């Protein structure tokens, strides 16, 4: 007889992989192994926006309070004109917002979120964490999987989950669609003491999540760590992308792209650490996340631009639905198919709209003037445009 509670091997210990491990353990899987390529489980990067659809899943995992303790709840999500400096539109994320969606909009340090997930995994007697192993291939038959690693080790289970991020090896095995699509955009990001940003912007305080938008560029700013630090992400399109230039998206280009920006933006950009750059990638929505006993999750399944701040939120949603699918009375393979069926349309919509929203943010000239004219007429309490994303059952 088929077991409905197979052992599970997860490839990748990022936010998606750890959240999946916790959800699976919650749903009665007694043996979950998470394999991570890095020598230690951890996160790189700076801040992370956690919309109510993510807060909802964290609450289910019993982690919302601990994440909220070090996070920050912004008063508003604001779009400002990066060139002229003035406010274009805003959405209030105070009590009205929380009442509508049942959960807060949080902005957190990604290290803090990852740490909360990791601590919960460590405390679970059903989860084993293995660092320093790179998965190369997964074999499967009708009863189970064998996950093989570069060092010659192998891990047996009933199911394997590829949560191995944007350059997923498991995806290449399942879908085989090569390297993700670059857009010629790069990001520089990091945190700095909030007072430094307040000084450079001339604002009285920083309690909003602000995106300064301009042609082919934007700057995101929001407080994290209870308001002590400010996360900044400067994003721009490089004119050297795809050309003959030896390097593209360099710090010198960053400076040049933001030269036309208003003084508060220009000054803030100089505070960002430029020692590492992130290239922006996404893919077209592509079905085929599940093959028999192997499934993809998070960026491995649906890599998206960060413009809607939803990549990690969607990985958390995946984990929730995956957890529910493993007890499928018709067997695990049916359960995994149901998981993809329930998640594909939603994640694809977010993937597609994130790309569209990027185009709206980065437009210039008369299109930007039209955008701003329409957005300036909105009320700060007009939540309808985001209901599809944040409501539990839109
Ligand atoms: C600039 C920027 C800002 C963003 N802001 C937001 C935001 O505000 N809100 C939001 O929700 N999302 C945001 N995102 C997106 C978010 O960071 C990602 O969607 C999310 O981290 C994906 O999580 P994941 O677990 O699927 O993948 P990852 O975080 O990439 O984790 C994959 C893990 O798998 C490991 N791994 C890879 N290959 C192997 C292998 N072969 N064997 C073993 N282990 C392997 C990796 O080391 C890694 O630890 C942003 C992204 C960027 C670039």
Overview of the structural elements:
The structure is a single chain. The protein is α/β, with parallel strands linked by helices and 394 residues long. The chain has helices spanning 15-26, 52-60, 64-70, 95-101, 110-123, 169-174, 194-201, 251-257, 263-269, 311-325, 332-362, 365-376, 384-390; strands spanning 8-11, 32-36, 47-50, 76-81, 87-92, 106-109, 127-131, 135-140, 145-149, 154-157, 159-162, 181-193, 209-214, 217-224, 229-237, 278-282, 290-291, 294-296. It has 2 domains: 8-72 and 103-180 and 282-359, FAD/NAD(P)-binding domain (3-Layer(bba) Sandwich), CATH 3.50.50.60; 183-281 and 362-390, D-Amino Acid Oxidase, Chain A, domain 2 (2-Layer Sandwich). A 7-stranded mixed beta sheet has the order 5-4-13-14-15-12-16, sandwiched between helices. Strands 7-2-1-11-18-17 form a 6-stranded mixed beta sheet. Strand 8 and strand 9 (145-149) form a beta hairpin. The longest helix has 31 residues, at 332-362. It is globular and about 60 Å long. The two termini are 39 Å apart. The mean pLDDT is 95. Bound molecules: flavin-adenine dinucleotide. The site of flavin-adenine dinucleotide has 33 residues, from helix 1, strand 2, strand 3, strand 12 and helix 10.
């Amino acid at each position: 007889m088929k077991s409905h509670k197979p052992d599970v091997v997860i490839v990748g210990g990022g936010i998606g992989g750890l959240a999946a491990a916790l959800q699976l353990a919650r749903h009665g899987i007694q043996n979950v192994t998470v394999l991570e390529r890095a020598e230690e489980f951890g996160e790189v990067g700076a801040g992370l926006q956690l919309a109510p659809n993510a807060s909802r899943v964290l609450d289910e995992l019993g982690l919302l309070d601990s994440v909220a303790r070090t996070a920050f709840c912004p008063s508003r999500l604001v779009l400002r004109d990066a060139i002229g400096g003035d406010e274009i539109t805003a959405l209030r994320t105070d009590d009205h917002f929380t009442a509508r969606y049942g959960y807060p909009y949080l902005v957190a340090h990604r290290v803090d979120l990852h740490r909360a997930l990791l601590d919960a995994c460590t405390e679970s007697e059903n989860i084993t964490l293995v660092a320093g192993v790179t998965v190369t291939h997964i074999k499967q038959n009708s009863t189970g999987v064998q996950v093989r690693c570069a060092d010659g080790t192998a891990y047996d289970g009933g199911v394997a989950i590829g949560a191995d991020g944007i350059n997923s090896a498991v995806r290449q095995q399942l879908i085989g669609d090569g390297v993700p699509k670059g857009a010629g955009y790069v990001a520089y990001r990091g945190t700095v003491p909030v007072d430094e940003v307040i000084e450079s912007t001339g604002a009285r305080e920083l309690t909003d999540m602000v995106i300064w938008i301009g042609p082919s560029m934007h700057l995101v700013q929001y407080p994290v760590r209870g308001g002590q630090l400010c996360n900044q992400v400067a994003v721009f399109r490089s004119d050297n992308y795809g050309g003959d230039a030896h390097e593209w998206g360099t710090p010198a280009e960053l400076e040049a792209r933001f030269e036309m920006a208003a003084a508060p933006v220009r000054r803030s950009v100089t505070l960002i650490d430029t020692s590492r750059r992130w290239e922006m990638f996404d893919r077209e929505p592509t079905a085929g996340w599940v093959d028999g006993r192997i499934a993809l999750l998070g960026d491995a399944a649906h890599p998206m631009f960060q413009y809607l701040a939803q990549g990690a939120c969607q990985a958390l949603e995946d984990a929730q639905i995956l957890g529910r699918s493993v007890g499928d009375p018709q067997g695990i393979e049916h359960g995994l198919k149901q998981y993809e069926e329930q998640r594909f349309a939603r994640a694809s919509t977010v993937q597609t709209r994130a790309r569209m929203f990027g185009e709206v943010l980065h437009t210039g000239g008369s299109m930007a003037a039209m955008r701003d004219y329409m957005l300036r007429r909105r009320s700060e309490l007009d939540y309808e445009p985001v209901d599809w994303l944040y409501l539990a059952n839109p």
